[in-house]
Design a protein that fits this description.
3 domains, Rossmann fold, 24 strands, four-stranded mixed sheet, eight-stranded mixed sheet, Alpha-Beta Plaits, globular, Phage tail protein beta-alpha-beta fold
Length: 447
């Protein structure tokens, strides 16, 4: 890998979860805390606090701490001091939301890794269902039958977004539609986890990427479909690798000078291509904006984005995104792409647990986790027997002459897609042969 692949943070020793006898009770109404914990690792501690206190918690990557404390009825500030020991923390109120708790070793701005509540029910858009109908079904008649309004439709796919009056009607309709013979798939419209933040760098150990586009042929073109946030201009030389951006979520234009996650992923794909080639490649990237002006996306937009990428020539898909919601509707769209011979790479997730992340855990999808260093999974990354590949999870990229850093399994996925694409463009190997070779080279370390 190019040197930037090795710019990874120091190793983190993951402790086992605290024993079942550990007790931590956060009384939200009185803002008082009771604790009796021994040998509790930092991550499960913060997960417990996030769950009980209801705060949004961000931690500086590669931060470790083991808590042993016993107290009763302490104010939350004093309790945090006892629980976090010599770690720094800041509890920042928010005018229109729950407080943010930042836990860090160096500076608060470095606390960028969000701690998500484990095993929570997947969050979905209120009062919405997605339905995929069998050919010949009258979507409008079916919507009327269950008391829904169609607020999104793709008649070519037989895919529809239904809106109901309230949650109970929605749940009842879900059961009714599951038993309807005209329905191929039906599920909630799940939210996806927000993309990892991008951090500005005052200096970087590597310079901007240099890569030349070799003229793609009329046939056999390799195009990486990139459903993500909108992608900004990477400069004249790299923009040649970018096909015209598509949007399925509204205006795809980006006015901000701050780099988007999609921009970071496009650059990371090109980084991997540069490493695997001799300075030039015919691989191109097709960006598909599935976020529009929103901070998060849903199963509906991801499904439409995948299909838009496929319809416009994508031969490999990069899904640097994920969530807890196992959408049967989205999976059906992904399975159509896989059946058409298009490999799908997806991020395993940014929580150090074995919990499944979707669509990475869907059948046939190539799930990618992050390496911290050789033979060591990154401290923040999901792992388990369902994960297929492990690649570096840190990328340094440039936008308008400024350097930035982004970290996560989304980066690892972009690297994997880039490696696969450049090998397909430069060899006679099949996708199956390429993926098999990658599984031998980018082995997932055993925890």
């Amino acid at each position: 890998m190019r040197s930037v692949f090795c710019l990874l943070l120091a190793a983190l020793s993951l402790s086992v979860r605290a024993a079942d006898t550990n007790s931590l009770v956060w009384h939200k109404t009185t803002d008082r805390v009771d604790a009796d914990v021994r040998g509790m690792a930092l991550w499960p501690l913060l997960e417990k606090i996030a769950s009980d206190a209801g705060w949004r918690i961000y931690v500086e990557p590669d931060t470790t701490h083991t808590t042993s404390a016993k107290f009763k009825d302490l104010p939350s500030g004093d309790a945090l001091k006892r629980l976090l020991g010599n770690l720094n923390f800041a509890l920042v109120p928010r005018t229109n939301g729950v407080p943010n708790l930042y836990v860090f070793r160096t500076e608060m701005k470095n606390a960028t890794q969000q701690v998500l509540v484990p095993k929570a029910a997947p969050k979905h858009v209120a009062n919405e269902l997605l339905v995929k109908l069998k050919p010949g079904t009258d979507a409008d008649a079916l919507a009327k039958l269950v008391g829904a309004k169609i607020i999104g439709r793709n008649d070519k796919l037989g895919l529809y977004r239904l809106l109901f009056d309230n949650a109970s009607v929605t749940d009842a309709a879900l059961g009714q539609l599951k038993g309807n013979s005209d329905v191929a798939e039906v599920d909630y419209n799940y939210y996806f986890d927000p993309p990892p933040p991008v951090q500005a760098l005052s200096s970087a150990p590597v310079g901007p990427l240099s890569l030349t586009l070799n003229p793609p042929g009329d046939s056999g073109r390799v195009i990486v479909g990139l459903p993500d946030t909108a992608v900004q201009s990477l400069g004249d030389s790299l923009d040649k690798f970018m096909l015209k951006q598509i949007s399925v979520a509204g205006d795809a234009s980006v006015n901000s000078s701050d780099p988007t996650h999609g921009t970071a992923m496009a650059y990371s794909i090109l980084e991997a291509i540069a490493q695997q080639s001799s300075g030039g490649s015919s691989v191109q990237i097709l960006p598909v904006d599935i976020y529009g002006g929103s901070e998060r996306t849903t199963s509906w937009n991801v499904a439409l984005g995948i299909q838009a990428a496929v319809d416009n020539g994508a031969t490999v898909l990069n899904l640097s995104l994920g969530g807890a919601g196992d959408s049967s509707v989205l999976e059906s769209i992904i399975q159509q792409a896989i059946a058409a011979g298009i490999p799908v790479f997806a991020a395993a997730g940014n929580q150090p647990v074995t919990t499944l992340t979707y669509p990475a855990a869907d059948t046939g999808v190539i799930s990618v986790t992050a390496l911290q260093q050789k033979d060591l999974i990154a401290s923040y990354a999901n792992y388990g027997s369902w994960v297929d590949l492990a690649l570096p999870g840190t990328s340094i990229f440039y936008l308008n002459g400024a350097a930035y850093l982004v970290q996560g399994t989304s980066v690892s996925t972009a690297y994997a897609s880039g490696v696969a694409a450049v090998n397909k463009a430069s060899t006679t190997s099949t996708w199956a042969q390429i993926v098999a070779a990658m599984q031998t080279k980018f082995v997932v370390p055993t925890k």
